[in-house]
Design goal:
Largest sheet: 6 strands, antiparallel
Number of strands: 8
Strand content: 25-35%
Low-confidence stretches: none
Number of helices: 3
Helix content: 10-25%
Distance between the termini: 30 Å
Length: 146
């Protein structure tokens, strides 16, 4: 049987690490075979609020987005996702963020880049880019209260 640690902790939340909780459950007779992460390892990903979306001057399928990540200034991010729209909250990998790559030993690092002549200061992420699922049809849209 599989269940999430979050679900279990909604009933009882002892001050134990995941490894210690797994060991305690096993010692109680409930064998824990695996602890599988829901997502790949990533860092530097924050909730981004898409304030504005405009057309990219040099590409039909790219958008220029102004994204609020809680910093002083809005980030300019070039995005190719078909579902990007003003008012969405989405995962935003800022410069220096590390995302799961093809090879788990080599994470993908986000750097400032020019895309078709326009500088992008990060990346708006799909569930696939975060290693959560294989869905890459568009951005992972977060709840409004994120």
């Amino acid at each position: 049987m599989q269940f999430s640690e979050r679900w279990l902790r909604s009933f009882i939340n002892p001050p134990l690490s995941t490894a210690d909780l797994s060991h305690l459950l096993t010692m109680a007779g409930l064998e824990v075979e695996n602890c599988d992460p829901v997502a790949g390892e990533f860092s530097g990903v924050v909730v981004g609020y898409v304030k504005e979306v405009g057309k990219h001057p040099n590409a039909d399928r790219l958008s220029l987005c102004k994204v609020d990540v809680g910093a002083t200034d809005l980030l300019n991010i070039v995005c190719g996702a078909p579902n990007v729209a003003a008012g969405l909250k989405v995962p935003c990998a800022v410069i220096g963020a590390k995302l799961p790559g093809e090879d788990p030993a080599k994470p993908f690092e986000i750097k400032a880049a020019k895309m078709r002549g326009v500088e992008s200061q990060g990346m708006l992420c799909s569930a696939r880019e975060l290693g959560i699922s294989d869905d890459h049809g568009g951005l992972l849209v977060l709840d409004a209260d994120a």
